[in-house]
Write a structure and sequence with these properties.
Blueprint lengths: L55 E2 L23 H9 L15 H13 L4 E10 L16 E7 L16 E2 L8 H4 L3 H6 L35 H24 L5 H29 L20 H5 L12 E5 L5 E7 H4 L4 H16 L12 H4 L13 H11 L5 H7 L15 H11 L7 H7 L10 H16 L5 H4 L2 H9 L2 H7 L15 E10 L17 E6 L4 E7 L5 E5 L7 E8 L5 E4 L3 E3 L4 E4 L2 E4 L66 E8 L17 E7 L11 H7 L6
Parallel strand pairs: 7-14, 7-15
Antiparallel strand pairs: 1-4, 2-3, 5-6, 7-10, 8-9, 8-11, 11-12, 11-13, 16-17
Helix pairs in contact: 1-11, 1-13, 2-5, 2-6, 5-6, 5-9
């Protein structure tokens, strides 16, 4: 039976049920919409109507650096992209999780909004070939030395690439604005194909999923919707959100036309995307204060996307990916086998079979990888298929795409955006091994590819980005906001605006799925189990502040799914232990077990469930006090004394030594030994089943802030578990116990 302490949420209290929140029915103020934002972005700026619209060329922060200064692929004097990838991006099958405990939703939302802002037009005639090092384990296992990874160059604006004064410029096919184009499209034809033209609603398919074409592929405003299940799931949530808002508006305003309902619902959905991005996602990624406060619309700001942002900086998310997608129920427990990332690419059946709830729950309940130069095998060696059958290396493609677009090198870009250039590899990263790899590859700090250098940087304090990518991304999102006449703070006011400001991604997910256990900030996954281990002095086994802590005991976090040890630690001098996400804690059902160094089980807790982020449990345990040998020389024992019931433990006084006399050993139960690796085996005949459990209310203030949320609510129900007292010193050496006791008890 699962024993779960009271769950504490860090959700803000808004005085309303998030699942019933609607901007339409609950606000009586008139909407101040300027008008519906143009689907193709044309006319957003009255003075410069093409700014931010479709088919515009990318802007540049630094001067182009093509091989011929005009349009030829750059980087000709640098190592091949695959060689660089093999050196600095190979994860060797290991995953290092985010040091700030960002969740997998951080990169999924990043991809979701990326598909709202950028889609580089691909060329059809010019091919690029990335040389594969001879003997490459994946792409040249036969050591032919002739293998290449081939891809097409991006298309250039035909009016560019004619001279050094007019270098080649690439084209953004979709609107630059955060205007929901991945949901609604960036052209009238796509937008119309997704509508029912009744009640302002958008089309859906069986199971309230996205509409499908004749081949069973999902349809949305962006052509990349089927790329992975996480992306498809977010697309689906926001189509449902549109229909939810349209229905609410229609109920409150039955005379509105289909067009009016559609555009009103669209305005709300776009506003929610903007609010989530700027109020939750960017602060989660970059820290508070990275984006300056909004001062209103500025018609002189061009919201267009920079090439450095689209082709390098905003590809940081490729480092955050995990190599597997799992499927969780509302309590964070697996409901089916996971699939590898390579198996999930452009595979809509993963969503039709598992639904979006299980995917979204997983994305909010699993930490992302650390943001660094490393990339998981699923996209470094098996992107879109195995090598030789469509397989590509995303890290190599990112490097090569930067050269294709003529991006300036890392140092030149830093200077262009107002940062100082570096003079040594040690200025880029404090990781000595990475310094050496970069120096071996590039020889000079003035030759580094922008994507590589940006990911290699030490992170800005409070951010998961280095200084270069932090500056590029902050600048881009500032321009997108300030240069958008239809920005939500320019569209809504009063209670409507306040309600949008309070809306979180978790709110939107929960009112459009069956999930009700998503943490307030879906972009972090922080959870923990902690407590204290004390010596049991009371015969009644009730908690007492007089019980001394016990140090140097082994504490194990046991995942009850298979009884495997997830992590171990040792109690400190205060008898305290803790497990967090860094210690392999995830959603699931656990128990805590205390053992001696030789494996003897001293205490085992009841089961406790971690069901989501922001779930912090406190479990205190007591271990038996050893008997203290009598210092008197025993005299002859009378026969009648041998039959007396042994006395119970006496209570210590302030100035006395602990007096513990022997008591009869109770019957011993044994757990069934398990021989499989990683399984628990009961030792010394001590039961792992706790008895005499009591509960108290206690705080969790001593959780380490690097692994747990420092501002989390901490009052949790305490589980105290003990095993029967032993009559000898088998369980705990006296010197160990006495060394941890307060002086007043000795």
């Amino acid at each position: 039976m699962i024993h779960s302490s009271q769950k504490h949420s860090r959700r803000r209290s808004s005085g309303m049920n998030p699942s019933s929140m609607s901007l339409s029915a609950e606000c009586s103020e008139p909407r101040v919409l300027l008008s519906a934002a143009p689907i193709d972005g044309v006319g957003n700026n009255n003075v410069h109507p093409q700014w931010g619209s479709t088919e515009e060329t990318f802007l540049r922060l630094a001067e182009a650096e093509y091989a011929d200064s005009i349009s030829a692929v750059g980087g000709e004097d640098r190592p091949g992209a695959r060689e660089i990838s093999n050196s600095v991006s190979d994860s060797n099958g290991k995953t290092v999780i985010s040091d700030r405990l960002m969740s997998a939703m951080i990169y999924t939302w990043g991809q979701f909004i990326d598909h709202d802002m950028t889609l580089t037009k691909s060329g059809t005639t010019d091919k690029m070939s990335i040389p594969v090092p001879a003997g490459d384990r994946y792409f040249d296992p036969q050591s032919t030395g002739t293998k290449t990874i081939d891809t097409m160059r991006s298309a250039m604006d035909s009016a560019t690439g004619t001279s050094e004064e007019n270098p080649g410029q690439q084209i953004n096919e979709i609107t630059a604005f955060l205007d929901g184009s991945m949901i609604y499209g960036s052209d009238a034809t796509t937008a119309s194909s997704l509508r029912t033209f009744a009640g302002g609603l958008m089309k859906t398919s069986e199971g309230n999923l996205l509409p499908v074409d004749k081949d069973g592929m999902f349809q949305a405003g962006d052509v990349r919707v089927n790329e992975n299940p996480g992306l498809t799931s977010l697309q689906t949530v926001f189509v449902r959100e549109h229909n939810y808002q349209a229905a609410k508006i229609a109920a409150a305003n039955p005379k509105l036309s289909d067009e009016a309902l559609f555009q009103a619902a669209r305005s709300i959905v776009v506003a929610e995307i903007q609010a989530v991005t700027y109020n939750e996602w960017l602060p989660s990624l970059m820290g508070r204060g990275a984006i300056e406060k909004y001062e209103g619309y500025d018609s002189t700001v061009n919201p267009g996307i920079s090439n450095e942002f689209a082709t390098a900086a905003f590809r940081f998310g490729h480092s955050l990916l995990g190599d597997e997608i799992e499927f969780f129920d509302n309590n964070g427990l697996p409901i089916s086998d996971g699939v590898t990332l390579s198996q999930a690419f452009f595979n809509p059946s993963v969503v039709t079979q598992n639904g979006i709830d299980s995917v979204l729950k997983y994305l909010t309940a699993d930490p992302s990888s650390e943001l660094d130069t490393q990339v998981v095998d699923g996209v470094r060696n098996f992107l879109f298929g195995p090598p030789g059958a469509g397989g590509l290396d995303l890290a190599s493609l990112n490097i090569q795409r930067g050269r294709d677009h003529g991006l300036a090198d890392y140092n030149d870009t830093r200077e262009a955006i107002g940062l100082t250039s570096v003079t040594s590899f040690a200025e880029i990263t404090s990781d000595v091994a990475l310094q050496e790899k970069l120096q071996t590859l590039y020889k000079s700090v003035d030759d580094i590819d922008l994507w590589v250098g940006g990911l290699a940087e030490d992170h800005v304090k409070g951010s998961s980005l280095g200084a270069t990518f932090q500056a590029i991304i902050a600048e881009q999102f500032t321009q997108l906001r300030d240069g958008d006449r239809f920005w939500y703070k320019n569209q809504f006011s009063g209670r409507q605006l306040a309600q949008l400001q309070r809306t979180s991604l978790s709110d939107i997910i929960e009112r459009n799925t069956r999930l009700n256990s998503v943490q307030q900030n879906a972009f972090f996954f922080k959870a923990g189990i902690a407590g204290d281990v004390t010596a049991e002095l009371n015969a009644d086994r009730k908690p007492s502040r007089k019980e001394p802590p016990v140090a140097k005991l082994t504490v194990s976090l046991i995942n009850t799914d298979g009884d495997t040890i997830a992590a171990t630690t040792t109690t400190d001098r205060r008898g305290h232990y803790q497990f967090g996400v860094m210690e392999n804690l995830r959603t699931g059902v656990y128990r805590i077990q205390v053992t001696k160094a030789d494996g003897t089980i001293l205490a085992s807790s009841r089961k406790v469930a971690i069901t989501r982020g922001d779930d912090f449990e406190r479990i205190n345990l007591s271990v038996p006090v050893p008997s203290k040998p009598s210092r008197k020389t025993p005299g002859p024992t009378r026969p009648s004394e041998r039959t007396k019931t042994p006395p119970t433990h006496s209570q210590p006084t302030a100035n006395s030594s602990i007096a513990v006399t022997a008591q009869a050993r109770p019957p011993i139960r044994q757990t069934k030994p398990v021989d499989a690796p990683g399984k628990l085996v009961a030792k010394s005949g001590v039961s792992s089943n706790a008895t005499g459990s009591n509960s108290t209310r206690s705080g969790l203030a001593s959780f380490n802030s690097s692994t747990l949320a420092a501002t989390s609510p901490v009052a949790k129900e305490t589980n105290r578990s003990t095993v029967p007292h032993e009559s000898s010193l088998e369980l705990l050496q006296l010197d160990e116990l006495f060394a941890t006791m307060p002086k007043g008890l000795l």
